[in-house]
């Protein structure tokens, strides 16, 4: 039985009790990783009630991931957005982690069969706290560079958020845990910095902020874009450039960001202290601007908050 994390789940257009949202063991996606998904968060805000953060961008990325794999999701962006609001309301959630996923069901075992098939679609929403821990948000996490490289260009597209890609993320994150780190950082096949198991990275030295480019086997994160935008508001420009491994050891500050991890400082890499080993000043500023979007202290100039009501 699936561990129940909320009362209801949205499944192919219907709202079902959590335990009844089941698939067959011959589901194509279980065998071949043929799914595309999103991770989205909703926050309880004092000024606008429960709001979904950057819903339109997440739904667009889901549709983009599906397009790369020639998948047909039988719902429009508007229907997915509405269903996301509906499942949050139905579960009476004030804040939530939301997991929309489109996948091939029990359509047969052939690798060619997906062509022209419609996907199934699920939207789960449940409560989920700080992914790398509350303490990590304050004081930073210890990270390690993994021995696994990220995917090479033209093998599997890292720009698609597809189920199969997360075998790479699992190897990265399991190795990090085994070595006592909270998160793993991966290099691309050229040896340049890529990303964390589920986070993008920013490196700061002497006031210069850089982040790996799209060509460094990253998923171009929506939080990454948020951080770049908030930094621009504060007068900082971010360089998107290839970053050598040693820059991690020499950084004054490093931050990780993603929907699950939000904006989290990194306090050490491979046991080497980042700066003075505490959250740095630029990280603190952008982190407070980020969380300020949800308590109303940062003005949402971009229309990033979609109220559920
Ligand atoms: N990289 C990977 C591999 C991820 O899984 C995620 C989380 N979706 C990110 C980066 C960050 O993306 P976002 O900010 O859109 O959540």
Classification by helices and strands:
alpha+beta
Q: What characterizes the major β-sheet? A: 9 strands, mixed
CATH architecture of the largest domain: Alpha-Beta Barrel
Number of helical segments with 4 or more residues: 8
Global Rg:
19 Å
Q: State the CATH topology of the largest domain.
A: D-amino Acid Aminotransferase, Chain A, domain 2
What proportion strand? 25-35%
Write down the CATH class of the largest domain.
Answer: Alpha Beta
Spans where pLDDT lies below 50 across 5 or more residues: none
Q: How widely separated are the two ends?
A: 32 Å
Oligomer classification: single chain
Instruction: Give the CATH H-level superfamily of the largest domain.
Output: D-amino Acid Aminotransferase, subunit A, domain 2
User: Are any ligands bound, and if so which?
Assistant: 4'-deoxy-4'-aminopyridoxal-5'-phosphate
Helix content: 25-40%
Shape: globular
Number of strands: 17
Protein name: Branched-chain-amino-acid aminotransferase
Catalytic activity: L-leucine + 2-oxoglutarate = 4-methyl-2-oxopentanoate + L-glutamate; L-valine + 2-oxoglutarate = 3-methyl-2-oxobutanoate + L-glutamate; L-isoleucine + 2-oxoglutarate = (S)-3-methyl-2-oxopentanoate + L-glutamate
Keywords: Amino-acid biosynthesis, Aminotransferase, Branched-chain amino acid biosynthesis, Pyridoxal phosphate, Transferase
EC number: 2.6.1.42
